[in-house]
Amino acid sequence: MAQGITGLVGRAVLLAALTLVLVAATDGLQVTGQVLYGSAAGATRGATADILAVYAQNPVYMRMRAEGLSETDGGRGSKLFAEAQATAQKALAKVARAEKLDVITVPGGLAGGAETVRDVTAAVIDQLPLYHVEGRVLAGATAEARLVVELASDSVLAAIPAWRGSQLLTEDDANYHFLRKQALDAFERAVKKVARDGGYDAVCEKGSVICRLGPVADVTQAAIAALEA
């Protein structure tokens, strides 16, 4: 009799545990943390993202930090931060649409729901632009660019005889504008050749590019070599 009672108690405990699991699995998604994208109202599918890690890999935010600017300075820092925010939101939105997510929150901001809560930080970072460019684009275009390089225009121009000759003249001299145009045409041909030969999406002025993957290649010497090609 005692064994029968023990067996009944054991089965009751097991059934209670299974019931708890079933309830937990079917319980609605609970949003308990800061919402980064979407809405908590009626959300059934969600994920989390480490927004600090996302900003750390955002090239616009990297530019702001590299220049020691503040997001609340009311000037250039605030402008860059607003651009970084817009870029991050766009990346979050792309991931949410691709993954069919109703909401993305900070880590630890979701509980319950029928699915395991995933961390999509890496996916969001992958949707950030690779580059932030502030300065002259010498060839190509930076929009959606996958490969951008830099060069020092002054160094390339200094290697062109016509440019050096124009620097010895004034604008009133008859040969000044002729030599200057000759030099700028040679410069443009060299830069375009470097872009074409290297398969670069854009060639920019040195110091104008921030890349979230690391330093940007300098093709100054390649452009100088292309002057003679």
Q: What can you see in these coordinates?
A:
It is a single chain. By secondary structure, the chain is an alpha/beta fold. The protein has two domains: 28-126, Skp domain (Protein Binding, DinI Protein, Chain A); 131-226, 2-Layer Sandwich (Protein Binding, DinI Protein, Chain A). It contains nine helices and eleven strands. The model is unreliable at 1-26 (pLDDT under 50).
Structural class, judged by helices and strands? alpha/beta
Morphology call: elongated
CATH fold naming of the largest domain: Protein Binding, DinI Protein, Chain A
Instruction: Give a short account of the largest sheet.
Output: 4 strands, mixed
CATH superfamily of the largest domain: Skp domain
Tally of helical segments: 9
> Unreliable runs, pLDDT <50, ≥5 residues?
1-26
Mean pLDDT: 89
Strand neighbour order, sheet with most strands: 2-4-3-6
Rg over C-alpha atoms, rounded to the nearest angstrom: 29 Å
- The domain count comes to 2
Which oligomeric state applies? single chain
Strand fraction: 15-25%
SSE order in H/E notation? HEEEHHHEEEHEEEHHHEEH
Measured as a percent range, the helix fraction is 40-55%
What is the CATH level 1 assignment of the largest domain? Alpha Beta
Number of beta-strand segments: 11
CATH architecture of the largest domain: 2-Layer Sandwich
